[in-house]
UniProtKB/TrEMBL annotation:
Family annotation (Pfam families): Mur_ligase_C, Mur_ligase_M
Pathway listed: Cell wall biogenesis; peptidoglycan biosynthesis
Primary localization: cytoplasm
GO cellular component: cytoplasm
Motif (Meso-diaminopimelate recognition motif): 403-406
Catalytic activity field: UDP-N-acetyl-alpha-D-muramoyl-L-alanyl-D-glutamate + meso-2,6-diaminopimelate + ATP = UDP-N-acetyl-alpha-D-muramoyl-L-alanyl-gamma-D-glutamyl-meso-2,6-diaminopimelate + ADP + phosphate + H(+)
Role: Catalyzes the addition of meso-diaminopimelic acid to the nucleotide precursor UDP-N-acetylmuramoyl-L-alanyl-D-glutamate (UMAG) in the biosynthesis of bacterial cell-wall peptidoglycan.
PTM annotation, UniProt: Carboxylation is probably crucial for Mg(2+) binding and, consequently, for the gamma-phosphate positioning of ATP.
Protein name per the record: UDP-N-acetylmuramoyl-L-alanyl-D-glutamate--2,6-diaminopimelate ligase
Transmembrane segments: none
Biological processes per GO annotation: cell division; cell wall organization; peptidoglycan biosynthetic process; regulation of cell shape
Modification sites for N6-carboxylysine: 222
Family: Belongs to the MurCDEF family. MurE subfamily.
């Protein structure tokens, strides 16, 4: 797709035409100069969408926008103001219309689920890139456009950032956009007006109850993604996930399932080691350097998407043989003298799947499994004792430490994790010191897991962000101890 074919460019729309998209009739026919929820971007004949957030109220900037000759969309009346009861819900629709619906000109793949989103998204990006498709990935902590890596504070960007990114993708001739779509983004209408060719659901477990309050509300938010499938779009679901199975009949679009009992993409495990998997997928033998039984599912989800978009099986099997995980997902930092792993697991279900794999590998080695982890503040507190219980169930040594306490009392968080432990846990709040403590006590060939932050490079407490990389601290302590032989 080239620029001429894409037709994706921000075009000036008359104010009355744009507002008609959300059911507001007006007589103003001026051509809009801009649309944004950022007041500083709005000048004469621009439209400012005043959003009320948890930290700031956009309505306080309405008068400044009026003084500059702009218009306002708000839930409160005023001069040069158009009233809508819920500006947040319609803001993305206005953006998509203003930018001429860029997502309709792209092949859109949305990936949601409690665990595995980032891994599936990275696999999809690599798979389609290697098969000659120009790709963009929008996901946790990163935005990739043809290898160019930009940071991102959210799993799914805010609506303005997102539509501008999609517009840029069109202008650059991008063909496939892979998006991680979080439950919060769906509930907060960030992806309203977007439509997807493929929607992937990896699994559904307990998470984000701090935001959604109930598991049912969390599930319902996730399934909003399938309402955004294009007319000929396809859903791709993990049939082995019990909650997902309950929703199969409600999708209303063609569905491909994957799993050990699936009729579409049937997984038959054959073998696994600490750094590889072998399994059958229908009639194909898959050999891959990915580790962990759960990555059979993640890789299969990606291959199912490739099949749905007409990639050749021969090419996909070749891809599987050298597939890689995103940074901080089951990442082997050192192989000798200890096996040190950094992983993003920060939910009880992800923690259990990851620790179960490494417990098996530790038993095969006849060595100990040691874990360092904490839980993030201002997030679902119910999972904390669950994760403590799982850590003690699978590990020989458990050390609890800080993990983005944010505005919560770090000691309270650690005490809640400890409620699920069996008394063997040790608390060392300073994360780097906790890592050092475990490495210092480890024996040759022990397996050390540092969990919860993955590839993150900072720790957040209150409003302070401190540079901290689990990988770098592991490398530093092993190097200082003269024990580091291999690093990937």
């Amino acid at each position: 797709m080239n620029k001429e074919q894409s037709g994706c460019t921000a075009r000036r729309r008359r104010l009355n035409e744009l507002l008609r998209v959300i059911g507001i009739e007006c007589q103003e026919t001026v051509e809009l100069s801009a649309i944004s929820d950022r007041a500083q971007e709005i000048g004469k004949n621009g439209l400012f969408v005043a959003l009320q957030g948890t930290r700031a109220d956009g309505r306080q900037w309405a008068e400044a926008v009026r003084q500059r000759g702009g218009y306002i969309l708000s839930d409160q009346p005023g001069e040069r103001t158009f009233v809508h009861p819920d500006p947040r819900s319609v803001y993305p629709l206005l953006l998509q219309a203003y930018y001429d619906y860029p997502a309709l000109k792209l092949t859109m793949i949305g990936v949601t689920g409690t665990n595995g989103k980032s891994t599936v998204a990275q696999l999809l990006y690599d798979l389609f890139s290697e098969n000659g498709r120009r790709c963009c990935l929008i996901g946790t902590g990163r935005i990739l456009i043809e290898g160019e890596n930009r940071g991102s504070p959210n799993t799914t960007p805010d609506p303005l950032t997102l539509v501008r990114l999609l517009d840029e993708a069109c202008q650059r001739g991008i063909e496939v956009v892979i998006m991680e779509v979080s439950s919060q983004a769906l509930a907060m209408h960030r992806v309203e007006g977007l439509f997807f060719d493929l929607a992937v659901l990896t699994n559904l477990k307990q998470d984000h109850l701090d935001y959604h309050k109930t598991l049912k509300a969390y599930q319902q938010a996730k399934f909003l993604l399938f309402e955004k499938l294009k007319e000929k779009g396809t859903a791709i679901l993990n049939q082995d996930d019990p909650i997902t199975r309950c929703w199969l009949a409600k999708i209303g679009r063609p569905v491909f399932t994957y799993g050990q009992d699936s009729v579409n993409f049937r997984i038959k495990p054959i073998a696994e080691t600490w750094n590889s998997l072998i399994f059958e997928l229908n009639d194909h033998r898959i050999e891959t350097p990915l580790a962990g039984a759960f990555n059979r599912y993640n890789l299969t989800a990606a291959l199912a998407c490739g099949f749905a978009l007409d990639l050749a099986w021969e090419n996909m099997l070749d891809f599987a043989r050298h597939a890689r995980l995103p940074q901080g997902r089951m990442e082997i930092v050192a192989e000798h003298p200890v096996l040190a792993v950094v992983d993003y697991a920060h939910t009880a279900s992800a923690m259990e799947a990851m620790l179960k794999h490494w417990r098996t590998m530790a038993d095969r080695r006849g060595r100990q499994l040691r874990v360092v982890f904490g839980c993030g503040g201002d997030r679902d507190a119910e999972k904390r004792p669950q994760m403590g219980k799982l850590a003690c169930l699978y590990c020989d040594q458990v050390v609890l430490c800080d993990d983005n306490p944010r505005s919560e009392d770090p000691n309270r968080i650690l005490a809640q994790i400890a409620e699920g432990c069996d008394g063997r846990q040790k608390i060392i709040r300073e994360r780097a010191e906790a890592i050092k403590f475990v490495l210092d006590g480890a024996q040759t060939d022990d397996i050390i897991i540092v969990a919860g932050k993955g590839g993150e490079t900072s720790l957040i407490q209150d409003t302070t962000m401190t540079c901290l990389s689990d990988r770098e601290w592991i490398e530093r302590w092993l190097r200082q101890a003269g024990r580091k032989e291999t690093c990937f």
